[in-house]
């Protein structure tokens, strides 16, 4: 069926839990409402590294036809609020985060 | 007063096109006239009240102070305030990001009675857009030479594609897209010609070479297209396939971030062009593109209608494609093989539904399955 689902299921449960606990799901809910897009599949794709975390903004822009600004802002929020707990695992560049 | 008028004009000049349109329109002049007549106000007095609101950056509380300085009986003042707000500011409230409805209600009146003034602006914007579109199409038709454009386009795809891929000027890319879409939809042999030129292009777009079994190859347009097709086949693909190729395939993995962006842009161009018009299936006609346009926030040339609630103005690119008035080839249907039986579809759906029952309703897994079901429903 959809291979990314199988790959996600084979990840270390501790890693999976970091992006699928109720708190993070609430954050994803908020971001989905704010940007009007579905994000669960994107989160899964990033977790199995089919979408590189450092390419996230450009992927969001392609996938949802978002403007560059919106895609960048959504990518930053996802990195700060969803993926921060797995930053090492994803090889995330943290230098651009939390810049006000 | 003269000074205030200048300040008002300076403020107005910096506002969106929709606001400027309304404040120089017949409906707004009519609304002003109505208010003057109903309250026996001089045009100077009324203008003054409006200027004050502009100068105060749309702090609507200044209206109440202003009303005290003019000769209107106190019982009529709240209705006058509501009329000024409803007839003059409510139509442009969403563009100014102010909650005029709440201000009217606060003064004890009903905002819905001013709906016709909002409709007047919506009509005005529609007329203006239509005039703009007609002007662009006429201009395009009078200046567009298909033979010349075809030669220029083929030449560009032969020797100037690297420049096009790196070009971030939205206007020039949009103009080129308009010409390409016109040629693709109106010149039957153009599609084959330009595809061939694209696949033969020998411009080097990455310093990183490609490594294949047969040896190392330069990072040319043609070689990157071959590499992608080797990995993913020659069918139309979606953005997930593209991201996966760039993230996990051997050659793109070695690219720097900057060069990966260039290859991504080339592959989006390849998809848009080679699979046109199927590649534009999910895109509204005014957003059709062959060369990918970076969707940066710029002032949109098409005026937006006023919205019910004041929200930040969304300034995404929306360009008029001149070819829109021409004979446009019908969009191809989604590539669903006819032989796929409904039974198989049902069986796939039931697998998804059964998968859904295995996970907690709000889990990431359940949401992914729901998104997959949604995607399948959209396709069917």
Describe the structure.
The complex is a heterodimer of chains A (100) and B (380). By secondary structure, chain A is mostly helical. Chain A has one domain. Chain A has helices at 3-9, 13-20, 22-35, 40-47, 56-64, 68-81, 87-90. The termini of chain A are far apart. Chain B has 380 residues and is mainly alpha-helical. Chain B has three domains: 2-124, no CATH class; 144-325, no CATH class; 342-379, no CATH class. Helices cover 61% and strands 4% of the residues of chain B. Chain B has a two-stranded antiparallel ribbon. The longest helix of chain B is centred in the middle third of the chain and has 29 residues, at 115-143. Chain B is elongated and about 90 Å long. Residues 297-301 and 308-344 of chain B have low confidence and may be disordered. Chain A binds chain B through residues 1-2, 5, 8-9, 16, 19-20, 22, 25, 28, 38, 40-41, 43-45, 49-52, 54-55, 58-59, 61-63, 65-71, and chain B through 239-240, 242-244, 246-248, 257, 260-261, 264, 268, 283, 287, 294-297, 316-317, 348, 351-352, 355, 362-365, 367-372, 374.
Count of structural domains of chain B: 3
How many beta-strand elements of chain B? 2
Mean pLDDT of chain A: 88
Output the helix-strand order of chain B: HHHHHHHHHHHHHEEHHHHHH
> In order across it, which strands form the biggest sheet of chain B?
1-2
Report the mean per-residue pLDDT of chain B as an integer.
80
Strand count, sense and barrel status of the largest sheet of chain A are: none
Instruction: Please state the structural category of chain B.
Output: mainly alpha
* Distance, first to last CA of chain B: 64 Å
Please report the distance between the alpha carbons of the first and last residues of chain A.
Answer: 42 Å
Approximate shape of chain A: globular
Residues in β-strands, percent of chain B: under 5%
User: What quaternary form is this?
Assistant: heterodimer
Beta-strand percent range of chain A:
under 5%
> Which range best describes the helical content of chain B: under 10%, 10-25%, 25-40%, 40-55%, 55-70% or over 70%?
55-70%
Provide a count of the helices of chain B: 19
């Amino acid at each position: 069926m959809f291979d990314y689902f199988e790959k996600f299921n084979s990840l270390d449960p501790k890693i999976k839990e970091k992006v699928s606990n109720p708190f993070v799901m609430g954050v994803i809910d908020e971001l989905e409402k704010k940007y009007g897009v579905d994000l669960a599949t994107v989160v899964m794709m990033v977790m199995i590294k089919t979408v590189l975390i450092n390419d996230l903004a450009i992927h969001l822009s392609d996938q949802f036809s978002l403007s560059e600004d919106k895609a960048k802002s959504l990518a930053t929020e996802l990195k700060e609020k969803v993926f921060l707990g797995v930053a090492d695992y994803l090889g995330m560049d943290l230098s651009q985060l939390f810049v006000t | 007063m003269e000074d205030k008028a200048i300040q008002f004009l300076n403020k107005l000049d910096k506002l969106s096109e929709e606001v400027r349109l309304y404040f120089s329109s017949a409906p707004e002049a009519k609304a002003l006239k109505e208010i003057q007549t109903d309250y026996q106000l001089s045009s100077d007095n009324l203008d003054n009240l409006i200027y004050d609101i502009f100068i105060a950056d749309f702090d609507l509380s200044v209206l109440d102070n202003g009303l005290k300085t003019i000769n209107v009986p106190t019982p009529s003042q709240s209705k006058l305030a509501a009329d000024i707000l409803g007839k003059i500011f409510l139509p442009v409230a969403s563009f100014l990001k102010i909650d005029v409805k709440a201000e009217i209600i606060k003064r004890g009146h009903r905002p819905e009675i001013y709906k016709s003034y909002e409709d007047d602006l919506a009509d005005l914007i529609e007329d203006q857009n239509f005039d703009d579109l007609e002007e662009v199409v006429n201009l395009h038709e009078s200046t567009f030479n298909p033979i010349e454009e075809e030669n220029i386009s083929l030449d560009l795809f032969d020797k100037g594609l690297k420049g096009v891929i790196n070009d971030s000027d939205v206007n020039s890319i949009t103009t080129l897209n308009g010409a390409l879409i016109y040629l693709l939809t109106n010149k039957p042999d153009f599609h084959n010609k330009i595809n061939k030129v694209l696949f033969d292009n020998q411009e080097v777009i990455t310093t990183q070479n490609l490594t294949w079994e047969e040896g190392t190859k330069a990072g040319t347009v043609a070689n990157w297209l071959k590499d992608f097709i080797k990995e993913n086949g020659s069918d139309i693909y979606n953005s997930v396939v593209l991201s996966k190729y760039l993230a996990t395939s051997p050659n793109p993995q070695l690219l720097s971030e900057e060069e990966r962006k260039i290859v991504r842009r080339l592959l989006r161009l390849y998809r848009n062009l080679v699979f046109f018009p199927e590649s534009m299936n999910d895109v509204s006609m005014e957003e059709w593109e062959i060369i990918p346009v970076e969707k940066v926030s710029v002032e949109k040339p098409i005026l937006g209608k006023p919205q019910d609630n004041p929200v930040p103005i969304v300034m995404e690119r929306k360009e008029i494609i001149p070819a829109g008035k021409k004979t446009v080839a019908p969009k191809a249907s989604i590539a669903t093989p006819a032989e796929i039986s409904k039974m198989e579809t049902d069986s796939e759906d039931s697998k998804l539904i059964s998968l859904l029952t295995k996970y907690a309703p709000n889990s990431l897994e359940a949401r992914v399955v729901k998104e997959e079901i949604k995607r399948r429903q959209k396709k069917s």
